[in-house]
Amino acid sequence: MKSDRSGQLQSAKELASHHLKSAIVDGRYKPGVRLVETELAEELGISRGTLRETLRELASEGLVVMRQNRGAVVADVSVADVLEVYAIRAVLGTLALRQIRGKTEIQRHLVSRLKPIAEQARKYGFQQKQRGLVDLDLAFQNEITSSSELPRCASFFRQLSVEAKRFVNVLGVTYADVDQIFREHQQLIDAISDGDMDLAEVIWRRRFQRAAQEFLDAMNQREIDTSAWPELTALIEFAPDSTQPSATGQ
Fold this sequence. Notes:
The protein has helices at residues 2-25, 37-44, 48-60, 79-99, 104-126, 130-146, 151-171, 178-193, 197-218, 230-235, and strands at 34-35, 64-67, 71-74. It has 2 domains: 2-74, Arc Repressor Mutant, subunit A; 79-235, GntR ligand-binding domain-like (Four Helix Bundle (Hemerythrin (Met), subunit A)). By secondary structure, the protein is mostly helical. The protein is globular. A hairpin with a 3-residue loop joins strand 2 (64-67) and strand 3. Helix 8 runs antiparallel to helix 9 (197-218).
């Protein structure tokens, strides 16, 4: 009985976490909105204690902020948030690509997994299905970090991918040039297939540079004082005056 009860509580907690995370990431709960415990606990059919535990976990993922006298509030999206998330994701992807350098069998299996994702993304792009295209683009990136066989690298990257998706929805960012996304998918597949990991790294980092720039543009931050975040801006090779073609590589 004790085991059944524990399983039921865990299931309820997981369902509550999934519901709240989806609502925050999709933008249904806007930044700054207070998450009232009594209302949410009743709505989700869980105890306030279970809800508090769920909210603390969401806070650890950067989706919620716990504030004194206000409780849980949906986290804002700031310039620093975007720079930090994209700098870390760029570095984790680079680490993953370096980890599989020279490992032809892993590279071959990775390419076989990337190809169908890229093809499906192309179909969604042609059908102008923005949400589906974002999900597939993130799945494409997650496959690369998962191939590294570095569990913490892959897990942290997936967690930050959730934040990246939230940025897209909250800021209303769209793919400026879907053809560029398709080209970059193919270029990464070709580079990995050829074992040219130096080129793969270059494509990867440029992709994140453009993505960060487009998010900052959406926040009306076209000129950034890079001295405020020197390490973060350096990691994503931030260049306000970049004249490269625009494409949101989420």
